[in-house]
Amino acid sequence: MVRLAIYDMDKTVTREATWTRFLIAGARRHAPWRLALLPVAGVMALGHPLRLVDRARLKGLTQRLMLGRRIPAGAMRELVAAFAETIERDQVMAQARDRIAADRDAGFRLVLATASYRFYAEAIAARLGFDAVIGTEVRRDAAGDVLSGVAGDNCYGPAKRRMVAAWLDAQGIDRAGAHIRFYSDHVSDAPMLEAADEPFAVNPHPPLRRLAAARGWPVLDWD
């Protein structure tokens, strides 16, 4: 039996969402003048709840606004390393660290499944001892430089469940022979929570807290 502990990242492992922090860190490092555009990014974000723009498109728009059309691969690696260090130091909840360590000690393979871009989530996950990351892919050119915009699916909602299933297939893991724990703070992860053998609602926002109560899922309030 393969045992997997799959964690969402933003507000499940970290105290706050990481995307805006990443945009600010990148703008500060590469083009400080773009920090003045942060309120514009905030206005753009209002388009999602109004259903004017989906999450993947919003991610690409705010990336282009705050980071530009293209960042050389080397510069992005340096930015990601510094950003991951900051997140691991300042944003990871103590109870999340404890739970990750407990799952590892219990023999679970640790997987991070996040809507955040995989290229920076991997650096954070490596610092926390995760074995694998499933995340949103970014567009790149032939040289490997990072372009604005999502490549493929945004790893969110039903797409996250599909991407986890595809990862299992790629790893040669039969779902019937796997025991999965899944941790998330948000009701958008209901498809994965429903699919898990052990679903955990972590610091759930009200819709997920209500769903967890209805389904009988354990609720973990961290930090």
SSE blueprint:
Blueprint: E1 2-7, H1 19-30, H2 38-45, H3 55-67, E2 70-71, H4 73-90, H5 94-105, E3 109-117, H6 118-128, E4 132-140, E5 146-151, H7 158-170, E6 178-184, H8 190-195, E7 198-202, H9 206-215, E8 219-220
Parallel strand pairs: 1-3, 1-6, 3-4, 6-7, 7-8
Antiparallel strand pairs: 2-5, 4-5
Helix pairs in contact: 1-3, 2-3, 4-6
Give a short overview.
46% of the residues lie in helices and 21% in strands. It has 223 residues and is α/β, with parallel strands linked by helices.
Query: What would you call the shape?
Result: globular
**What is the count of β-strands?**
8
Strand order of the largest sheet: 2-5-4-3-1-6-7-8
Q: State the end-to-end distance.
A: 32 Å
User: Compute the gyration radius: what is it?
Assistant: 17 Å
**Count of alpha and pi helical runs:** 9
**Biggest sheet features:** 8 strands, mixed
Element string (H = helix, E = strand): EHHHEHHEHEEHEHEHE
What class would the helix/strand composition place it in? alpha/beta
Mean pLDDT, rounded to whole units?
Answer: 95
Spans where pLDDT lies below 50 across 5 or more residues: none
Q: Tell me what portion of residues adopts beta-strand conformation.
A: 15-25%
Instruction: Estimate percent helicity.
Output: 40-55%
